[in-house]
């Protein structure tokens, strides 16, 4: 299964919120739609959901026009919408029935999701009695209640503590393995780095970066170098091609103009008989790439 966004453009008056956007999200490989505020992520999601018509381009599911009639879509909106006075199980059953499930099937699915999210003991509680993070887990369960083919998660990590964020990753991995198509929107780079394979980074509607996270990182080259030595070598490392030097608890962090400078640094250390316990060229993090391309905003 696949979701293809093909040359999609959306304008609001004179403003182009999304410009000629193309990407494909495939079964089993969670896809990240990244960008800072106002980049066009929510507008893109709304077009996929059919809430906004596209001005140009196409949105397809397995090569055919995507409609909510043909494809089961689970959407976790950025603004959460639960009924505070209803119990967890009532609410999830209601969402299931709204999506054409029998009440019985909805209860079975709700209980299994609550087990997975370690929320089963809360099933009889009113939503308003739950902590924010737990309410978010219920919202996630509501999104997944009818086992959707396409799962769209808008900023799913906001408000989750590290343990719950880990649980969300496990749930996403589980659905990816089941072959579901999963689309994330996020401005939190670290949260998607190890979860998604492909991504686009948007800025004011324009595509700044597109590709697999691995290839994008590779293209940026390894320009960060970590050196741990048994003596103070900072002054020796101030050479051409070394842009910055920062002393940290785990060693000296260098930023290089390009990967080849590392060889020069290595040679200097060897020529001075410096005993080096760590010499590590590191790839940029997604966050660093994002900051360079978009200028911050996480
Ligand atoms: N209904 C609308 N009418 C007019 N302009 C809109 C509308 N929806 C979005 N926009 C504009 O489109 C641009 C993209 O907004 P969008 O909400 O898609 O960004 P986003 O990446 O989701 O941002 P955030 O991370 O803040 O949610 C913004 O400049 C926004 O003001």
UniProtKB/TrEMBL annotation:
Keywords, in A-Z order: ATP-binding, Nucleotide-binding, Transport
Family assignment from sequence similarity: Belongs to the ABC transporter superfamily.
Species of origin: Ferroacidibacillus organovorans
Name of the protein: ABC transporter domain-containing protein
Superkingdom of origin organism: Bacteria
An example Gene Ontology molecular-function term: ATP hydrolysis activity
Every ABC transporter domain range: 3-229
Signal peptide residue numbers: none
């Amino acid at each position: 299964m696949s979701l293809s966004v093909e040359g999609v453009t959306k304008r609001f008056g004179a403003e182009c919120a999304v410009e000629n956007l193309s990407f494909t999200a495939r079964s089993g490989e969670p896809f990240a739609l990244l960008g800072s505020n106002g980049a066009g992520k929510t507008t893109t999601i709304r077009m996929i959901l059919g809430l906004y018509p596209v001005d140009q381009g196409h949105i397809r599911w397995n090569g055919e026009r995507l409609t909510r009639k043909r494809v089961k879509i689970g959407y976790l909106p950025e603004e959460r919408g639960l009924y505070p006075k209803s119990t967890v199980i009532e609410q999830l059953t209601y969402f299931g029935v709204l999506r054409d499930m029998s009440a019985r099937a909805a209860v079975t699915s709700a209980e299994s999701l609550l087990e997975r999210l370690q929320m089963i003991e809360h099933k009889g509680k009113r939503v308003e009695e739950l902590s924010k993070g737990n309410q978010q887990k219920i919202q996630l369960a509501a999104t997944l209640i009818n086992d959707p083919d396409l799962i769209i998660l808008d900023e799913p990590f906001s408000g989750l503590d590290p343990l719950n964020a880990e649980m969300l990753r496990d749930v996403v991995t589980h659905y990816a393995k089941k072959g579901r198509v999963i689309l994330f929107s996020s401005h939190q780079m670290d949260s998607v780095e190890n979860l998604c394979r492909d991504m686009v980074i948007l800025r004011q509607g324009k595509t700044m970066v597109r590709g697999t996270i691995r290839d994008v990182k590779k293209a940026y080259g390894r320009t960060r170098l970590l050196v741990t030595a048994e003596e103070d070598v900072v002054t020796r490392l101030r050479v051409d091609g070394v842009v910055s030097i920062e002393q940290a608890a785990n060693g000296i962090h260098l930023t290089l103009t390009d990967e080849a400078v590392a060889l020069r640094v290595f040679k200097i250390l060897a020529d001075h008989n410096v005993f080096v316990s760590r010499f590590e060229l590191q790839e940029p993090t997604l966050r660093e790439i994002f900051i360079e391309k978009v200028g911050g905003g996480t």
